[in-house]
């Protein structure tokens, strides 16, 4: 079931995108025109649809399995490592599915009706390497963050995720204030690898935080 959810989610995104495209068709926009292609390739549907499942699964992978794993004799470090390994497997699966759908999308002429789902700007603009990088690193980051918040809940109860969320919000606000005077320079010199590096950094920090929280967590 875990591996079916991304497929169902992407299928629903395709249906919703088709409905939206049909609406604009009725307003006079036509497939293949520069305006249609430009608007369609800015479709952020996948970017909005997948994070909910990935975050939820990241939480579930710790909150519901940690007590059983410890009861079966699994060490806390081994549990954290195993969770990260499975998250990597799931993230790779999402990336492969995305790559396969990109191929189908191109072979069918954008699903036979000029409908863009995967070949969009936010997923790398049709570049297979960028697509795989975005889906893999993005999925792994979201799964790891979900696991971190679940570890906070296991360690401190309901107040754990609340305090962690407040701390993350404060960190983001402080970072925004520090970077605000340099936004122009950052935008001018922006490189895509910055996002990849940020994803790796956040994933590493989340896994380290997860292990630190679970080291002292009691089995419920």
From TrEMBL:
Q: Where would you find the membrane-spanning parts of this chain?
A: 46-72, 84-104, 131-154, 161-180, 192-214
Q: Which UniProt keywords apply?
A: Membrane, Transmembrane, Transmembrane helix
Q: What is this protein called?
A: Uncharacterized protein
Tell me the organism.
Quadrisphaera setariae
**Phylogenetic placement of the source organism:** Bacteria, Bacillati, Actinomycetota, Actinomycetes, Kineosporiales
């Amino acid at each position: 079931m875990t591996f079916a959810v991304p497929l169902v989610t992407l299928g629903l995104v395709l249906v919703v995108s088709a409905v939206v495209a049909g609406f604009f068709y009725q307003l006079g926009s036509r497939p293949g025109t520069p305006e249609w292609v430009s608007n369609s390739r800015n479709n952020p549907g996948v970017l909005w649809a997948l994070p909910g499942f990935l975050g939820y699964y990241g939480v579930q992978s710790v909150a519901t399995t940690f007590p059983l794993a410890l009861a079966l004799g699994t060490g806390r470090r081994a549990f954290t490592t195993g969770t990260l390994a499975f998250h990597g497997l799931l993230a790779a699966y999402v990336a492969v599915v995305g790559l396969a759908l990109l191929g189908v999308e191109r072979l069918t002429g954008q699903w036979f009706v000029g409908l863009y789902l995967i070949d969009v700007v936010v997923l790398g603009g049709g570049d297979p390497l960028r697509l795989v990088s975005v889906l893999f690193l993005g999925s792994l980051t979201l799964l790891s963050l979900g696991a971190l918040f679940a570890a906070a809940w296991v360690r401190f109860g309901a107040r754990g995720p609340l305090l962690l969320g407040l701390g993350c919000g404060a960190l983001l606000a402080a970072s925004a204030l520090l970077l605000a005077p340099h936004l122009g320079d950052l935008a001018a010199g922006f490189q895509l690898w910055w996002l990849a590096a940020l994803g790796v950094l956040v994933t590493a920090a989340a896994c380290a935080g997860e292990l630190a929280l679970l080291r002292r967590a009691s089995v419920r």
